[in-house]
């Protein structure tokens, strides 16, 4: 392999345990499992945010989303005991995205699928992509079945399925590739709501339940604290049993298999590096709660590990010893410098990157040092999460509730469910992690929410 092709596959809302290779015994993902067997699977990979737009901005820029200025999903807003904080509603055009870096190095650059980082001057074609298929300001499709109602993607025949269609578009691009290397940025809308999937697959998973009563698989919890959610309660799924979601996962897996077949059929598989990951944790506490992240705590919209830990698979055909797992702690900003290094490229001298390349881990070489991973989510999430900041360094994770100021300390290695607060028994660790977190918040220009001086202006 000379200059490798690069394929970055981003799944929307895919949970850490939503794959067979990550522990699901209900969803079926043989093609993604096979992909993991060809490379390295990271067990402690994190999204930069518990919601989508910030993680997407981070992936494209190599920066923490707070430094970019996008800290909530674009269009999100909520207040409660704390007021909301401002954030950018489009990716600034001045950011030197990974697509711009690769195009400047001679790559053809294609974006296919969800964008949710703005339109117009913030569209994919303004951020280094030669082509945009299906990407716009919207965060989810009105329908997974054509007519889709998506700008940037012509409707197909009635009933055509979106995940199939986007994969068709990606395969056509692979088949059109010439001698120039390509960067395919395939960001599927699946498995975001609405939960819609091919009926035959739903029937398969209904049969797989074998008549089991799943009524108790969702447990009602505390009332949500955001004003716009008053009266609603957190509804936690405690088992993976949603047949519609399982069907969406299997269809997605089939399409990953089709993509891999296309790379092999065109003779490009041995010249293509693949990164597969998710933008945040699985949706498990609201909006139908279609998946379960246990043993991890909570899900999308929460800074606990269920909302931020995600699958990450990297396949480099040049590396021998495939099928490895790595417990190196990593986060979304690391993907940018990893792609550049694996492609044999350097970042520009004036280019700020928060991420750390994972190339040594991918190549099974010593010397990789994982820095602390930080989170800054100063908003109320639709899924029940509250304004929170956190840091994980090594096995320890400090979580600070911005409403109350309470700090909790967890040993993630021993307690992945974050069930036991060690703050009282580990004051030195709390102080050290808190000091590092405060310094980092200052460095990235984090805006912290202030106490809301007013009562709710309405009653439900």
Automatic annotation (TrEMBL):
Protein name per its UniProtKB record: Sulfatase
Keyword match Lipid biosynthesis: no
One of the Pfam families matching this protein, by short name: Sulfatase
Superkingdom per UniProt: Bacteria
One annotated GO molecular function: arylsulfatase activity
Sulfatase N-terminal domain ranges (all copies): 4-344
Homology family: Belongs to the sulfatase family.
Cofactor(s) in the UniProt record: Ca(2+)
InterPro entries: Alkaline_phosphatase_core_sf, Sulfatase, Sulfatase_CS, Sulfatase_N
Family matches, as SUPFAM superfamilies: Alkaline phosphatase-like
Organism taxonomic ancestry: Bacteria, Bacillati, Actinomycetota, Actinomycetes, Micrococcales
Key words of the record: Calcium, Hydrolase, Metal-binding, Signal
């Amino acid at each position: 392999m000379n200059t490798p092709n690069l394929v970055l596959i981003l799944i929307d809302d895919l949970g850490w345990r939503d794959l067979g290779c990550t522990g699901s015994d209900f969803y079926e993902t043989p093609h993604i499992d096979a992909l993991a067997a060809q490379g390295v699977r990271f067990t402690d990979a994190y999204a930069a945010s518990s919601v989508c737009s910030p993680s997407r901005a981070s992936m494209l820029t190599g920066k923490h989303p707070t430094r970019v200025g996008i800290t909530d999903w674009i269009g999100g807003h909520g207040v409660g005991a704390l007021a909301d904080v401002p954030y950018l509603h489009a990716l600034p055009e001045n950011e030197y995205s990974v697509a711009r870096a690769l195009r400047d190095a001679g790559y053809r650059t294609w974006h296919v699928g969800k964008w949710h980082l703005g339109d117009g001057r913030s569209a994919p074609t303004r951020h280094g992509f030669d082509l945009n298929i299906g990407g716009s300001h919207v965060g989810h499709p009105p329908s997974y079945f054509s007519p889709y109602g998506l700008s940037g993607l012509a409707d197909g025949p009635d009933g055509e399925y979106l995940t199939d269609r986007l994969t068709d578009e990606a395969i056509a691009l692979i088949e059109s590739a010439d001698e120039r290397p390509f960067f395919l940025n395939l960001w599927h809308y699946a498995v975001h709501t609405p939960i819609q999937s091919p009926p035959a697959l739903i029937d398969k998973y209904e049969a797989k339940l074998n008549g089991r009563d799943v009524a108790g698989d969702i447990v009602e919890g505390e009332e949500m604290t955001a004003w716009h959610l008053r009266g609603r309660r957190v509804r936690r799924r405690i088992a993976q049993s949603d047949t519609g979601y399982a069907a969406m996962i299997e269809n997605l897996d089939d399409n990953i298999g089709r993509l891999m077949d296309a790379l092999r059929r065109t003779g490009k598989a041995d010249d293509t590096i693949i990164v597969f990951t998710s933008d945040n944790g699985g949706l498990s506490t609201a909006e139908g709660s279609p998946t379960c992240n246990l043993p991890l705590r909570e899900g999308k919209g929460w800074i606990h590990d269920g909302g931020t830990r995600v699958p990450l698979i990297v396949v480099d055909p040049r590396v021998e010893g495939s099928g490895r797992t790595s417990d190196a702690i990593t986060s979304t900003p690391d993907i940018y410098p990893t792609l550049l290094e694996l492609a044999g490229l350097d970042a520009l001298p004036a280019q700020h990157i928060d991420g750390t390349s994972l190339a040594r881990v991918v190549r099974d070489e010593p010397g990789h040092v994982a820095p602390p991973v930080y989170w800054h989510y100063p908003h109320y999430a639709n899924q029940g999460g509250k304004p929170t900041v956190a840091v994980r360094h090594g096995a320890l994770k400090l979580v600070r509730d911005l409403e109350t100021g309470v700090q909790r300390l967890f040993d993630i290695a021993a307690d992945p469910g974050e069930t036991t607060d060690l703050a009282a028994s580990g004051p030195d660790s709390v102080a050290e992690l808190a000091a590092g977190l405060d310094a980092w918040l200052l460095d990235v220009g984090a805006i912290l929410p202030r106490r809301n001086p007013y009562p709710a202006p309405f009653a439900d």
